[in-house]
Amino acid sequence: MLQFEMALSTAQSKLNMIPDEAATEINQILSKIKISPGELAEGTLKNGVPVITFLSLIKERLSSATKNHLHYGTTAQDVMDTAQILIIKDAIALIEKKLQLFIQHLQKLADQYGNVPCMARTRGQLAMPITFGIKVNAWLLPLQRQVERLNEMKKRLLCVQLGGAVGNLSVYQDKGEALVKVLSEILQLQSSCQWHTQRDNLSEFTNWLAILTGVLGKLGADVLVMAQSEISEVVEIEDGGKSSAMPHKNNPVLSEALVATARINAALQLQQLQSIVHVNERDAAAWILEWNAIPQMLINTTTALNHAITIAGKMKINTAMMQHNVETFLKSNT
Amino acid sequence: MLQFEMALSTAQSKLNMIPDEAATEINQILSKIKISPGELAEGTLKNGVPVITFLSLIKERLSSATKNHLHYGTTAQDVMDTAQILIIKDAIALIEKKLQLFIQHLQKLADQYGNVPCMARTRGQLAMPITFGIKVNAWLLPLQRQVERLNEMKKRLLCVQLGGAVGNLSVYQDKGEALVKVLSEILQLQSSCQWHTQRDNLSEFTNWLAILTGVLGKLGADVLVMAQSEISEVVEIEDGGKSSAMPHKNNPVLSEALVATARINAALQLQQLQSIVHVNERDAAAWILEWNAIPQMLINTTTALNHAITIAGKMKINTAMMQHNVETFLKSNT
Amino acid sequence: MLQFEMALSTAQSKLNMIPDEAATEINQILSKIKISPGELAEGTLKNGVPVITFLSLIKERLSSATKNHLHYGTTAQDVMDTAQILIIKDAIALIEKKLQLFIQHLQKLADQYGNVPCMARTRGQLAMPITFGIKVNAWLLPLQRQVERLNEMKKRLLCVQLGGAVGNLSVYQDKGEALVKVLSEILQLQSSCQWHTQRDNLSEFTNWLAILTGVLGKLGADVLVMAQSEISEVVEIEDGGKSSAMPHKNNPVLSEALVATARINAALQLQQLQSIVHVNERDAAAWILEWNAIPQMLINTTTALNHAITIAGKMKINTAMMQHNVETFLKSNT
Amino acid sequence: MLQFEMALSTAQSKLNMIPDEAATEINQILSKIKISPGELAEGTLKNGVPVITFLSLIKERLSSATKNHLHYGTTAQDVMDTAQILIIKDAIALIEKKLQLFIQHLQKLADQYGNVPCMARTRGQLAMPITFGIKVNAWLLPLQRQVERLNEMKKRLLCVQLGGAVGNLSVYQDKGEALVKVLSEILQLQSSCQWHTQRDNLSEFTNWLAILTGVLGKLGADVLVMAQSEISEVVEIEDGGKSSAMPHKNNPVLSEALVATARINAALQLQQLQSIVHVNERDAAAWILEWNAIPQMLINTTTALNHAITIAGKMKINTAMMQHNVETFLKSNT
Q: How far apart are CA A39 and CA A34, in angstroms?
């Protein structure tokens, strides 16, 4: 939100909408300000958005000449929506990095163990021999498509939101469009028509997160089966999860978390989708659903990737047991 | 499913995997066969898939020489997944047509009434005057992005599934890849590696459906407000929904249905997302979630588009009242 | 709905609100009428409820003297809500019967195999020996609580709904309360204040359905593990689900369906819960969620009970393998 | 968790299962210990439960003679499940208090304004005059049923969980049942068979929470309509939510939050319901869903009650406008 207000003032000074000195002061002061969420709590409860309190905390630090040039012509939702996109942009950079690392780990697994024969299991029953590479592919190929999807959606998603009180930029008169353009350049976001009542892009992105944790959930579920004591084809991590009552156990706890996270993100996606029914020109009954869903989904996805990277990097593949299970099957089915 | 078996036999005869006569007979017989869902019910209960019964119903009509060449080397999931994609392909064609018609209606509304001043309402309160065109844009722009999204996802989604019992095409030996290619050409689908345990594409598509009904839900919610007796800026349809007890009423029943459908499709998307956690090489506990979600979502989406087209084509815009509401607001706020 | 209109006319004639002859004719005609859902479709689309068309189809069969006494003073939601409760009452009777049968099957399993030693598995790992009776108890005890819960909620749930156009019975003047009382006696429902905007009881009941399918889902999930080829402690049904590609398989397809149904009913419960946000004095955007959720949940629950009864009655318990798995565990952990 | 370990040691010393001195030391030390969640984070990641680290942090403070008597014969899930019930018990006490206060506020509203005529609105349209008391009843009566439901479920819900490693109390030999009884007396919980794999009670309770926030959501939705600028029958709070761009606005922000919370709790209930599918004798893929859902639902419900209490206590009822709207309606419909 600070980043938005700084960039807005810079853009407005460039377009001679506010004095250059005001923009300079705003950038100087805001780049050093620290506001803790706690300071915004009471005001958010009162106003239904943190922005009013946020602005008054900032204005306390600004000269009286500059105060009136802060947040000029814009509205709470402009700040908050653009701030959310900036957060998402950073989160995407982090997620992409983790995703690439995970993909590399899977490719390494495929290189090393791809040709190991192992049993396919369909509907819980031994089916036919395949190779371990086919299992890895079922985790890997959807991730490659995820990379493709993400690249396609970025142009829609990573857009500035600027509309003013009711989305029509009217307060800026003939400078509205230019302001959007300059602002988006400063923030390194796409320029865009206002979208404050159009929440489709966010739901496209959160579904991407939910698909990602879904795919990691499949990995988790597959590992849980292969790590069952009776199957023992993999060990999630040696010296893994301990039990307080049974010292002989080695619990595949990260895989369980992956399955749970897939279901949790799916439920959050359903909340997010309902935020598209955003009534009229602003509707916090819908908007709050996003505030609840998006941060959780970002955290869940990043955590799930961490777990998946740990598993893919440390999982012990018991090729002898895979081989043994194939042979036992072939013996009893010929 | 019939279409898949016909195309498979044609492809297999082209590649000299089954006799040409078998393929000819299969195509002749299957193109005329009618199987009602009822005939498949008992077998589906027993086997957890309709395919076994489906095949035995077909085999009754085939010569004994040809029987063994039907469904050669393939498995239930190949038939069902590819059939589902064929259904989705047809559904997309229908949905695209309706979506284009709806977009045209909205553009016409924008052309005709786009400059009419009307009140923006934020958080249920009168905010500032805008134009009706801004409201129409909030329905229209997400739909244009939907067209873009759909075009991007088709290459991933509309793919044949052929893998054989456990997905590795092993039974076809060195002809597996060629068979996938020829089969996909006949069915006019993309050729693809097997994806029977990778359900990300389907969940990308169903989210597209849920976003679409979400956007239509926003239209519905907006109409419900503008059609309120106290606001009366639009009438959903003249001579609309009647009440059994209150003859003076004209209920905006299609708009209500749009809001409800948005929530229902959102809930179905959450089911669908969980199907990605498809354990091992086949997992009907996950797969059944798709069987439940996808047909409902297709029907809900098509119905919602019908409603939206009716509304956009027949809604009565009360420009005088919009104007009046703006003037009243301006008078009391200056 | 026919049952409601008949009972209403009977009650109204008893209270001298309509002529006895009208009530007699209404009962005679309506008890023989058959209306197919298809006849109501077009009118439902137009009016957002089927009641207007339903009434006009009935009125065609009534004398003109009687017509005006049909549906006297009541509204669409009275008919539909009470009809829904009547359906639920019948469904409960069916579900209770099936539930009792299932409980008996489980008790028989416990009697017969309760003392058989078998392995507990925690977090997918062999834990410690228990008895099969402990597993059966985990399915049985929640069901006994379900019986208790159902008995507690019936007094709230199985209530007549009668309020007239806006829920205040005003059209009936001082006879409103008496009418509710007589009507509820005829329909063998609880007498009740109007509850047309209070949907908590329905959501309490549907959660009961979702808990029930959840418990059956746990049974299914447990059977899927014990029926895995590598564990083989139970066979869901001998000569169970067949594969179109792998004749050696015996798929536990009913157990998979139980797990899927648990998730589907959970998703439907979330729809149903949102119907509680029923705006003002009637809100079909919320109401439609119920029309979608409740019938599906009733069908899903009954079907799941059928599957569970089949499993509990036909499951083959491999006591030798249970014993063997315990011994193997004890040997390797001492 | 500390409370559980203290009570367990007391109970075990009473039954001569551990030395009295050990129980005394455990109670002395644990009653003073403070463990922050952060100290448990790393261990929870490793072991999938916080209990192992929790115990080792405690053991550091115990004499070596006493260490071995801590947590005797019990397992992580016993501690965690019982601790969760203790938290829920405290939360219920808080929620009951707030609920009673809210009910009193509603009754006061009914006393003061119950007879004020106002318009019923059905399907967004003016319907017929009712009284404001009917609106209040629609919020009040479900809450009275909620009190009834809560009293019925407490006997099932507020139960101790003690089962040992796999739920059969085997380690305690013939003292198991007595231990459960004494432990539950100390903790002021119901004595109970182990229920660690039976999650129906928790889902009954969380549905109660979701119904409660649903009813509050209906209040919120009703207030949003009555507080619309064009209707102005109520003001949520005078000097309510401010806008950063439009000083004339008074946003009903608490009501919006109530509607959003209803939807969020509904989505959490769907997660919780899936935790009933708790596989085998312990299944963290299901269990984690509860860890995610229950704390959020408790917080959401308490917050929603706070909002509802504020609204019911501070809402300004504009009786003149209600009267005016009724008269306008009557004039135009006679």
A: 10
Q: Which two tokens stand for residue A132?
A: 């371990």
Mutation pick from B280, B290, B301 vs chain A, by most beta carbons of A within 10 Å, is B280
Cross-strand pairs, A234: A317
B-chain CB neighbours of C289 within 8 Å are 260, 263-264
d(CA C112, CA C115): 8
Cβ-based burial of B295 (10 A; exposed 0-12, middle 13-18, buried ≥19): middle
Helix pair C253-274, B284-314: axis angle to 10 deg: 40
Q: Hey, is the C-beta of C241 within 8 angstroms of any chain A C-beta?
A: yes
Residue in A with minimal Cα distance to D46: A241
Question: Is the Cα torsion angle A300, A302, A304, A306 positive or negative in sign?
Answer: negative
- Within 13 Å, how many C-alpha atoms sit on residue A221's CB side? 31
Distance from C-alpha of C155 to C-alpha of D145, rounded to nearest angstrom: 11
pLDDT number for residue A212: 98
Instruction: Give residue-wise pLDDT tens across range C153-171.
Output: 999 999 999 998 888 898 9
DSSP state of C15: T
Q: Whole-angstrom Cα distance, residue A147 to residue A142?
A: 9
Query: Tens of pLDDT along B46-60?
Result: 999 999 999 999 999
Give Rg (Cα) of chain A: 26
DSSP letter assigned to residue C315: P
Contacts with D273 from chain B: Cβ below 8 Å: none
Contacts of A227 in chain C (CB under 8 A): 124-125
* pLDDT at residue A242, as a whole number: 80
Closest among D233, D260, D213 to D120, alpha carbons compared: D233
Task: Please classify residue D307 by burial: count the beta carbons closer than 10 Å to its beta carbon, then call 0-12 exposed, 13-18 middle and 19+ buried.
Answer: buried
H or E stretch at C317: strand C316-317
Looking at chain D from residue 270 to 289, which residues have their Cβ under 8 Å from any Cβ of chain C? Answer: 270, 273-274, 276-284
- ipTM of this model? 0.97
pLDDT higher than 90, residue C334: no
Position C242 pLDDT exceeds 90: no
Q: Does A16 touch chain C if contact means CB atoms closer than 8 Å?
A: no
- Give the chain A residue nearest B262 (alpha carbons): A274
Which among B48, B146, B267 has CB closest to A270?
B267
Nearest C-alpha of chain D: how many angstroms from B302?
23
Contact B244 C76 (CB under 8 A): yes
The pLDDT score that the predictor gives to residue C233 is: 97
**A159: phi then psi, degrees, rounded to nearest 5:** -115, 145
End-to-end CA distance of chain D, in Å?
Answer: 68
Closest C-alpha to D271, from D244, D296, D248: D296
In chain A, the largest separation of any two C-alpha atoms, in whole Å, equals 90
Which pTM does this prediction carry?
0.97
Task: Say if C155 is an interface residue toward chain D (CB within 8 Å).
Answer: no
List of chain B residues whose C-beta atoms are within 8 Å of the C-beta of residue D251: 122-125
Q: Which two tokens stand for residue B66?
A: 């040809």
Q: How many residues does chain D have?
A: 334
Give percent helix, percent strand, percent coil of chain B, each to the nearest 5.
Answer: 65, 5, 25
Q: Chain A contacts of B211, Cβ < 8 Å?
A: 200, 203-204, 273, 276
Nearest C-alpha of chain B: how many angstroms from C334?
33
Q: Which of D128, D246, D256 sits opposite B127 (nearest CB)?
A: D246
Q: What is the DSSP string of B3-48?
A: HHHHHHHHHHHHTTSS-HHHHHHHHHHHTT----HHHHHHHHHHHS
Contact of D122 with chain A, judged by CB distance below 8 Å, is answered with: no
Nearest-by-Cβ selection for C76 from B243, B256, B283: B243
Task: Give the C-alpha distances (Å, rounded to integers) separating D236 from A76, B279, C49, D233.
Answer: 21, 51, 33, 10
- Going by C-alpha positions, the residue among B18, B57, B17, B15 that lies closest to residue B36 is B57
